[in-house]
Amino acid sequence: MHRIEEAAVPTRVIGLISGTSVDGIDAALVEISGTELDLKVELLAGATYPYPAELREKILAVGAGVAISMAELAEIDDAIAIVFAQAAQNIQIGHQPATLIGSHGQTVYHRPPADREIEKKTTPDSPLGYSLQLGRGALIAHLTGITTVSNFRVADIAIGGHGAPLVPRVDAYLLSHPQEGRCIQNIGGIGNVAYIPPRHGDWLSKIRAWDTGPGNSLLDLAVEHLSAGTKTYDEDGNWAASGTPCHPLVEQWLNQEYFHLPPPKSTGRELFGVTYLHQCLKDAQAYQLNAADILATLTELTAASIVHSYRTFLPQMPQQVLLCGGGSRNLYLKKRLQLLLTSIPVWTTDEVGLSADFKEAIAFAVLAYWRHLGIPGNLPTATGAPQAVLLGEIHQSQS
Ligand SMILES: Nc1ncnc2c1ncn2[C@@H]1O[C@H](COP(=O)(O)OP(=O)(O)OP(=O)(O)O)[C@@H](O)[C@H]1O
Ligand SMILES: CC(=O)N[C@H]1[C@@H]2OC[C@@H](O2)[C@@H](O)[C@@H]1O[C@H](C)C(=O)O
């Protein structure tokens, strides 16, 4: 049952997420009103709080498969919840307090459902996907005194979905256009797209969304390796821009199975992580590429895999592409995307009024708000789930 009547009252909600780049906690304090087509979100404050270096190292190690004990797992889970709770406290400074938190947490493992050969290789026994986000909501609620919704992916996974991407339903209501088809392209550690057709007829069922593959994950790892640990990312894409992409290598990399899988599909650093980068660096040796050429070629892989997936899987090309996530600040990547998309304009979501930096944090505030109102959060065409369901577990606070 939808408790639509409550939606007339604007609600102050905090959205929290740390994505696959593991760079820090994005926090958004928003005022939300409406429900779906009349949904309105005002960003009151947005900030990124970097992880303490030691915690970041631990998270990256766990995500890369380093073995830990159950006690250590509990310790990391709570260490993450503590910094998320601090982020929630900090973002409210100077504002009226929030009444609800939506916390995505930190993904440390993601395994899609085993319904295709590529996925069966990693999943011998279970037909369901598995996605683990740390930073337990119970502790965030306890520390902040604010009811917290967390564990957003499990309900979609329980009915056979990928549990990702989840932001497309929010994109649909905040970024659809009455006449124009749009691709909303997030470029985080991993890239994901939501194609939103013009908002008429059965537009909602025509939305398509999937993870496009690497966003910045391989680039960041390569920069760290090539700079001997002195840099963590290629600021504005300047280093890559000083090199030349090796197109035969990009073509070779695009043959990889993931890029040819039809959606729905999701991925993570389990595939596009350290091992993948090492293979790329090995392949690059055959072409005697220097550091700048390697970065230009990896940047081209991100751009080409995005555009290749649009041309292969979309019913039609969009009229606009709206970028968000940290990769939207990589000017060289943006330029390469524009070149590959020829006459289709490539903008950022900022240009249509939604913060490109904080869109994911805003989305988890909306998903918590929908959970509170009893409104489903997933889009079956995006996650592959058979139906739309309520997302997230509610942890009531004591105060
Ligand atoms: N000025 C910039 N120039 C180039 N790249 C940038 C810039 N600012 C941020 N980035 C890139 O964006 C990344 C962070 O992006 P973002 O915070 O959107 O990722 P995420 O949310 O962790 O990932 P995901 O969306 O996959 O969960 C950084 O690691 C860096 O590679
Ligand atoms: C399992 C997981 O954390 N997936 C992330 C990741 O980062 C980008 C892409 O892969 C997307 O599928 C998802 O995040 C966003 C927030 C989503 O669910 O829409």
TrEMBL record:
CDD domains: ASKHA_NBD_ANMK. One of its GO terms (biological process) is peptidoglycan turnover. It is an enzyme of class 2 (transferase). One of its GO terms (molecular function) is ATP binding. Keywords: ATP-binding, Carbohydrate metabolism, Kinase, Nucleotide-binding, Transferase. It catalyses: 1,6-anhydro-N-acetyl-beta-muramate + ATP + H2O = N-acetyl-D-muramate 6-phosphate + ADP + H(+). Its EC number is 2.7.1.170. Pathway: Amino-sugar metabolism; 1,6-anhydro-N-acetylmuramate degradation; Cell wall biogenesis; peptidoglycan recycling. SUPFAM superfamilies: Actin-like ATPase domain. ATP binds at residues 19-26. Belongs to the anhydro-N-acetylmuramic acid kinase family. Catalyzes the specific phosphorylation of 1,6-anhydro-N-acetylmuramic acid (anhMurNAc) with the simultaneous cleavage of the 1,6-anhydro ring, generating MurNAc-6-P. Is required for the utilization of anhMurNAc either imported from the medium or derived from its own cell wall murein, and thus plays a role in cell wall recycling. This is Anhydro-N-acetylmuramic acid kinase.
